[in-house]
Amino acid sequence: MLLIVGLTLVTILVLQLILLFSAYWYLHAHNSHVELVDVAQQPILALISQFLIDAAAVLYMFMLVEGKYHVRFWQAIRWNWPRSEWKLLSLGVLLLFGLGVLENFLPMPTDTPFEKLLARPRDAYLLSIIAVSLGPLVEELFFRGFMYPVLERRIGVAWGIFLTALPFGLIHLPQYGWAWGAALVIFLVGVVCGAVRAATRSVAASFLVHVGYNGTQMLIAVVATHGFRHMPKAVVDLCSR
User: Fold this and answer.
1) Which of 33, 48, 174, 216 is least enclosed by beta carbons within 10 angstroms?
2) What is the pTM of this model?
């Protein structure tokens, strides 16, 4: 688990530097008015970087399990695709609306770095694709597939759920402007996903809940904005949860 974290952190640093300098050289090398920091703030660069980092993290997990322990990856992490797909997706939908009520009583951020990713329809669509595919996949594989079993064996189910949900919420802090209210909401999403993982003994089950939660956000945003062509503040706040 720690090896995967270390490899991912190195990948984040190296990959972001490569993408940053490549984008600057390819697009703005002959434009003296554009600085490197301006390129770094481009939303499309952040989305491409996130996609590649997520893909690398999945690759590391796969290589570690199959290469070091010589067992089938999906069997080792207890993917175990459930029969009640729609029930689990529906649970994610209900979770979104339930936590939406809670947010009315929390100090939620009003201006976050996340909003820049929704400024253009192209970027918003790319974000939506990542949010219902590779994003929840890599998070569930690591937190509920790798981290939870280690903690559950050592300190029990309840602490395993709590201590996987805690870093799950904390890693989202930067994109929500370090607002603790948003982190608490994501933490509770992690608690529910962990409880589903523990009850069903299936990472695929927690993945479906996660997809239901994220997918409902994105679907509401697409409908409310007529295809991300008009982004009122209320929709931006919904997508930023």
Assistant:
1) 33
2) 0.87
- The two three-digit tokens of residue 216, written as one number: 């409902």
Residue type for position 69? Y
Cβ contact 160:74 at 8 Å: no
Sort 3 into a burial class: Cβ within 10 Å, 0-12 / 13-18 / 19+. exposed
As given in the structure block, the two tokens for residue 204 are: 């695929």
The full set of domain ranges for the chain reads 1-75, 77-241
User: Do the beta carbons of residue 171 and residue 104 sit within 8 Å?
Assistant: no
Q: How far is residue 102's CA from residue 182's CA, in Å, rounded to a whole number? A: 11
| Confidence class for position 77, pLDDT limits 50, 70, 90 | very high
Query: 39: which 2 tokens?
Result: 């390129």
Paired tokens of 200:
């069903």
Cβ-based neighbour number of residue 18 at 10 Å: 12
Instruction: Report the C-alpha gap between 232 and 9 in whole angstroms.
Output: 35
178 Cβ contact list (under 8 Å, min separation 6): none
- Is residue 211 within 8 A of residue 136, CB to CB? The reply is yes
Between CA 204 and CA 210 the distance in angstroms is 10
- Would you say how long the chain is, in residues? 241
Rounded CA gap, 162 and 187, in Å?
A: 9
